[in-house]
Amino acid sequence: MLADPSSLPTDRAVLSQPPKAGLSCKMVLQAVGKVLRKSKAKPNGKKPATEEKKMYLEPEYARSRITDVGFKELVVLPREIDLNEWLASNTTTFFHHVNLQYSTISEFCTGEACQTMAVCNTQYYWYDERGKKVKCTAPQYVDFVMSSVQKLVTDEDVFPTKYGREFPSSFEALVKKICKYLFHVLAHIYWSHFKETLALELHGHLNTLYAHFILFAREFNLLDPKETAVMDDLTEVLCSGGGRGGGGGAGASGGGAGAQNHGKER
Ligand SMILES: [Zn+2]
Asked: Residue 114 C-alpha to ligand 1 middle, in angstroms?
């Protein structure tokens, strides 16, 4: 299911190490247990209360980034570059990154652990090519997303790469659709797999990817605010301040204004 890694930027070296390479499943589970104890979650297997569950909002974790680059400036369409080319290249890259980020926790995203594709009180359903609603587990949903996006971004009629080929009139609508799906996957990772991401020390990557993706989508109105409302609290924390560190005024406390927002985990 993983996309061709050759097109991924430089940080793939860190992300592409499968968890198994350095950390056995047992080690990850132990680390998850440690994080759970730290968060004072109930050890009896009961699901923690909603507010308690939003560990990703804790300033200690939310301020973690792998870069302090200003995404707000980075997402702007550069002069002399065609809008569709810019949308195509960024969308393809986000797809690869979301796919990679999900792959780091995919062994925990099973049909049993994640019986539905749910984020908070929102339930996502897949619709097949004939528009028929398909009831599926979260890993099945993610598989549908990745397969259909992979098909689109490698379709010369939709994402043309050859000189002289035109983008279709439906291009923007398709990019919006892809962004919606990628948002669902990111939201699911935060909602259901943040503890594992934390145990793998990949939350800095996840936060960076999320902030970059949301600011890009916002710049070109690619996501419906109603769609993203479910993660508004996180977006506020991660994207205020233009993605540059973020978290300022949203819960981070103590320390100098500059230094506290640029915590790096590595
Ligand atoms: Zn899952």
From this structure: 5
CB 159, CB 88: distance < 8 Å? yes
User: If you measure from the C-alpha of residue 107 to the centroid of ligand 1, how many angstroms do you get, rounded to a whole number?
Assistant: 9
Q: What is the pLDDT of residues 98-136, one digit of tens each?
A: 999 999 999 999 999 999 998 988 899 999 889 999 989
Length of the chain: 266
From the list 85, 93, 64, the residue with the least C-alpha distance to 234 is 64
109 is an annotated ligand-binding site residue:
yes
Residue with tokens 């960076």: 208
Model pTM above 0.85: no
114 annotated as belonging to a binding site for a ligand: yes
Determine the distance separating the centroid of ligand 1 and the alpha carbon of 115, expressed in angstroms.
Answer: 8
Domains of the chain and any CATH numbers = 49-262 (1.20.140.30)
From the list 14, 216, 201, 184, the residue with the least C-alpha distance to 98 is: 184
* CA of residue 183 to ligand 1 center, whole Å: 14
Question: 104 C-alpha to center of ligand 1: Å?
Answer: 11
User: How wide is the angle at C-alpha 60 spanned by C-alphas 56 and 65, nearest 5°?
Assistant: 80
Q: How far apart are CA 252 and CA 149, in angstroms?
A: 36
